[in-house]
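Hi V.,

Quick status before I head out on leave. The structure for the redesign project is tokenized and pasted below; the design run finished overnight.
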């Protein structure tokens, strides 16, 4: 355990321990939720600016309110999706039917691939709007670190959600094997 800030402890042993036996709780690892919190939190906290000459706030990404709205919306919905699938991972061992397990894993594959795509769109959109932002809109460089953090964590989220989809495909293959095995070799009653 590594002490953080004198009051919290962090156990880094989980970082390299993703084995086949620990795949059941793979979504409960920190990262998925954290990335989405960083994206929407940084945009909500420092993504809107106001100047002395204007009364309304404007988005730090090229004054485009759609960029800030997209980042916040995707971040919040991704966080809620993480919580939903975390609950499914807790419930997953109690699902007795292989067909129901397959449906759960197929939904996980589809949802994870969809979120990887949404994060890719978000990264491209935010990076493009940040690139074309005018320095005169933000002469004091307020919120620039938060804007860059949202772009960076959108980029990281592409890979985490893609990895989630890949792990779900592996889980689906394991379930298909279990179904075929139980069909070929049914359990016989013990005398």
């Amino acid at each position: 355990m590594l002490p953080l800030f004198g009051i919290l402890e962090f156990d880094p042993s989980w970082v390299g321990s993703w084995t086949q036996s620990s795949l059941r709780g793979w979504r409960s690892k920190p990262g998925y939720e954290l990335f989405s919190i960083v994206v929407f939190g940084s945009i909500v906290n420092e993504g809107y600016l106001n100047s002395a000459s204007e009364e309304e706030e404007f988005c730090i990404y090229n004054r485009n309110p759609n960029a800030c709205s997209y980042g916040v919306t995707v971040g919040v919905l991704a966080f809620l999706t993480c919580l939903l699938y975390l609950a499914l991972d807790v419930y997953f061992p109690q699902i007795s039917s292989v067909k129901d397990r397959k449906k759960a894993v197929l939904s996980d594959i589809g949802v994870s691939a969809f979120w990887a795509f949404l994060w890719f769109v978000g990264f491209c959109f935010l990076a493009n709007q940040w690139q074309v932002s005018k320095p005169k809109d933000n002469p004091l460089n307020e919120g620039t670190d938060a804007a860059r953090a949202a772009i960076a964590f959108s980029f990281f989220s592409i890979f985490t959600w893609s990895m989630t989809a890949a792990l779900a495909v592996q889980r689906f293959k394991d379930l298909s094997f279990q179904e075929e095995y139980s069909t070929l070799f049914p359990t016989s009653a013990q005398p």
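Above is the designed sequence. The chain has one domain: 32-182.

G. will cover questions while I'm gone.

Best,
W.
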